[in-house]
Known about the structure:
It comes from Kitasatospora camelliae. The protein has helices at 8-22, 50-65, 67-80, 124-138; strands at residues 26-33, 38-44, 91-95, 99-106, 109-119. By secondary structure, the protein is of the alpha+beta class. The chain has one domain (8-138): Dynein light chain 2a, cytoplasmic (Beta-Lactamase), CATH 3.30.450.30. The protein has a five-stranded antiparallel β-sheet with strand order 2-1-5-4-3, with helices on both faces. Helix 1 (8-22) packs antiparallel against helix 4.
Amino acid sequence: MNSQGTSLSERVSGLVKTLRSEVPECLASGVIDMATGMLLAVETVDSHPSEVLDLLAAATLDLFQGRNVVMIEGLFKERRGVVSDRHYFQEILVNSDNLTHLFLRAEGEEDMVAVVVCRKTVNVGMLFAQTRRVLKQHGRL
């Protein structure tokens, strides 16, 4: 527990609920632990089979820390003279036929990635602004 007396589980659940309610056109939100590859919490307007949610967590892990992504990050760091264990990619936006998916590493918690899924009609600027605001408001997980 942290100094406010809330557990990690409570903080993650609160973040997911806030993302779901405050990000425009949000249909689902979740938090993935990159150290374990597990989906820690999810809020969605529809029910989804657990296999789909497990695949979301695995795909997020590949998206941020797959072998080729880590190699690209290493090359970018090397070319720019950056010496750090910090991951280079912090935010990734993916558009599908009907949805927009935004994946963001939590500030100061690189092993935690928040994901929000919105209708494709979402204003992308507002999507980024609101998601970043909520993450900042929730602070360290």
